[in-house]
Amino acid sequence: MQDRVRSVGILGIGSCVPDNIRTNKDLEKMVDTSDEWIIARTGIKERRIADEKTATSDLATVAAKRALEDAGVAAEEIDLIIVATVTPDMFFPSTACIVQSNIGAKNAAAFDLGAGCSGYLYGLTVAKQFIATGMHDKILVIGAEKLSTIIDWEDRNTSVLFGDGAGATVVGPTEDGMGILATSIGADGDGGKHLYMPAGGSRVPSSISSIEQKLHYLKMDGSEVFKFAVRIMSKASLKVLKDSGYGVEDIDYLVPHQANIRIINSAVKKLKLNKDKIHVNLDKYANTSAASVPIALDEAVKQGKIKKNDVVVMVGFGAGLTWGSCVIKWNK
Ligand code: UT7
Questions:
Q1: Residue 327 in contact with residue 254, Cβ under 8 Å?
Q2: 8-177 with 181-329: one CATH topology?
Q3: What separation in Å is there between the alpha carbon of 82 and the centre of ligand 1?
Q4: Stretch 287-306: mean pLDDT
């Protein structure tokens, strides 16, 4: 359902990736893989890996400060912080509360949101409703991950795919008819078994045995997730376009979740979109889960690929299984 009580847009954006680069060649020394295989099957060339001292909240804090600066909004003006992540600093307090303290957003409520790689788009959807109704005025929506801590670096099926990073947006009221025109989110819990981390929660609490069995690492049935992703990327894009009153022909730029170039290419083909309207940076950062869409959006904006009045579609999928999409008439 789309409400139009108050128009809501992205007022500022920022991102943060660790300096340390881990290339495919580096991975060749760790598992039985090759640069050629990784590039051919995924499009990924390298990823960023945070050092031991850096937690998800540290990446999120830098991205948030950059977004606030870009928006010209003071931390005290923020009245809600949503951090989408599957790699929180700890179970509690929430990573959002840690970010609140770090940036001095004294007037903000704060919570984490778990929707896998779709988390940022879920967060944007929540923020839009709160601002449209007047319940909140300025919301920080952040996607942040330190996935390197839940990756089994001896598993070639998963270790080549992921990286660390954070992207943040300040969301607030904008001029009428501009900003987020429609959002759409969905889930298929039956598919949860295809992408999950078995231990560390209440089902399998941490124990010596859970660690010995490597149950604190991400487990994935890649081909099942791949099939789901190929199906959902175009479907979710078309659904949200219809809700916004636009068509594929109106898209100026599409920012997809950066998981695999073959998934993106298949969506592009299904949508019959021109490839130069798509933002791709997975070659540099790999899949950063909830951070992937806002990092890509930040890069696209900073590179001048997105301009005021452009119709921008963002779409993603992830653990849950979940998906999310949105259409923005760029308001900045
Ligand atoms: O944000 C959501 C997160 N997840 C995803 O988006 C993942 C979606 N899935 C994918 O991207 C792909 O399924 C993968 C990239 C994970 C795998 O690509 P694939 O084309 O589906 O390969 P596959 O799983 O069918 O594996 C083909 C072969 C297998 O060998 P056999 O059994 O055919 O002998 C794998 O063992 O490739 C092997 N393989 C590797 N070889 C070299 C798997 N990983 C690697 C590797 N290096 N890193």
A1: no
A2: yes
A3: 32
A4: 98
* Token pair of 82 as six digits: 């949503």
pTM: 0.96
70-83: pLDDT as tens digits: 999 999 999 999 99
Specify the range with the lowest mean pLDDT, choosing from 4-8, 221-225, 323-327. 4-8
Domain residue limits, the chain: 8-177, 181-329
Residue 259 Cα to ligand 1 midpoint, Å, equals: 12
Instruction: Show the tokens assigned to 7.
Output: 């128009």
The residue nearest atom 25 of ligand 1, judged by CA position, is 223
- Ligand 1 within 6 A of 260 CB? yes
- pLDDT at position 2 is 47
The Å distance, Cα 79 to ligand 1 centre, comes to 42
**83 membership: H or E segment, kind and range:** strand 80-84
Distance in angstroms (rounded) separating the CA atoms of residues 332 and 327: 15
Question: For residue 1, what pLDDT band results from cuts at 50, 70 and 90?
Answer: very low
CATH number of 8-177: 3.40.47.10
CATH number corresponding to 181-329: 3.40.47.10
Q: What is the pLDDT of residues 173-220, one digit of tens each?
A: 999 999 999 999 999 999 999 999 999 999 999 999 999 999 999 999
Q: Is the dihedral of CA 258, 109, 87, 302 positive or negative?
A: positive
Half-sphere exposure of 17 (CA within 13 A, CB side): 26
Phi, psi for residue 271 in degrees, rounded to 5: -80, -10
- Beta carbons within 8 Å of 238's beta carbon, 6+ residues apart: 248, 271
Q: Is the CB of 158 within 6 Å of ligand 1?
A: no
